[in-house]
Amino acid sequence: MNKTFYSYSFGCRINEAEKEEIDRQMCLKGYKFAKNKPDIFIINSCAVTNKAEREVRQLVYQTRRRLPKTKIVVTGCAATYWQKNKLYQDLPINLLINNQNKEFITKIIKNRLSYQPSLDRSGRERVVGTSKFLDSGRILIKIQDGCQRFCSYCIVPYLRGQPKSERIKNLELRIKNYEGKINEVILTAINTEAFGYDTGEKFIDLLKTVIDKTNIPRVSLGSLHPWSINNDFFHFYKEYLPKNRLVNFFHIPIQSGSNKVLNLMKRGYTKEEIMDKVQSINRLNNFSFIATDIIVGFLEETNKDFEETYNFLKESPISKFHIFRFSKRLNTAAYYMAKKLKEPTASVKIKRAKALGELSLKKYYEFLQKNVGRTSFVLLLQKTFNDFREGLLDNQLPIFVKTESKQPTRLIEAKIVEFK
Length: 420
Fold this sequence. Notes:
The protein is α/β, with parallel strands linked by helices and 420 residues long. It has helices at 13-28, 50-66, 77-85, 105-113, 156-160, 168-176, 203-213, 231-240, 259-265, 271-284, 303-315, 333-337, 346-371, and strands spanning 4-9, 32-33, 40-45, 71-76, 95-97, 138-145, 164-165, 184-189, 218-221, 249-251, 289-296, 320-325, 375-385, 388-392, 398-402, 411-415. The protein folds into three domains: 4-113, Rossmann fold; 134-371, pyruvate-formate lyase- activating enzyme, CATH 3.80.30; 375-415.
């Protein structure tokens, strides 16, 4: 009988893309995906904040109590962080696999856990439907890993290493494998600016290749580093956006709207430069959906600095914010800076996060209302509600469409008639 496995991913879309690849490799090796009482439970972890790491630990303990016989395997950033700092001895896990060895996870599981699955020797690639993305007719493709920026608050470069990019030709062939099986490919990276850092290839050339040489109906991007948004980027979007294959959604982590705080974070840009970039994106298309990440309560962030961030976001065309409260991570520059610089209190961080959350909700609702009355291509998803199907607009806004279509996922044209 084949051994079974289940996987769960924390954190960013890169982690979700890696989870999908782990699922695919496990199934190709003969393991069967099973949510209930799996033989192996694989956790692809996150350590970007203290909260994220704590949630991974909680899941480990919950899983051990609920499934005492299941082998627990932890990989990803928290696994790497624990290994580097020897923080895993008390955890009831069977295997800890760091990021550097993640690509060998199936081999390590087979050798270390002594599980011998029935091998699929057909040599065929299969789309393994084990994620919210694949189930919705979309696939996440990891194009790059690692980062050379070393922002003062960020632990990611210490856990994922220097930039490593996939070759454009390899990505083209991999994406072609999904033609006819999915409707959207999402290109994900730790740092899009660093794509080609090690290979000499260009991010824009990758985008052109995916559009010109594959026939996946929709192409979208994960997070965009601000320095990826340059003249080449705008020339590309001006040429290709009218072809209706590029998803008009941009997630740009800016982290702060205060130049003083941005400088302490070592982000390498000013709020004026960011405002110019997001306004230029908005001019590409009036319905561009722009989202961002913001850290509140960073070192030396005063009320004045926070007000600058608040006003920057209020005046910008950014319509949604993902808000994080600053937490020191061991080994980062900010961890040592905190010994000399003042850090806002927990209550101040909560208050600032709440204020930005309310502003984000207001701007998001305004953007939803702005879309009413227009016609858009919609990617239908699996979920239904009475006579309606859930879908995604051409800018990734969620929508419910009245349709009798029973096809699993497909693209249709629809008019947005109301916002509730």
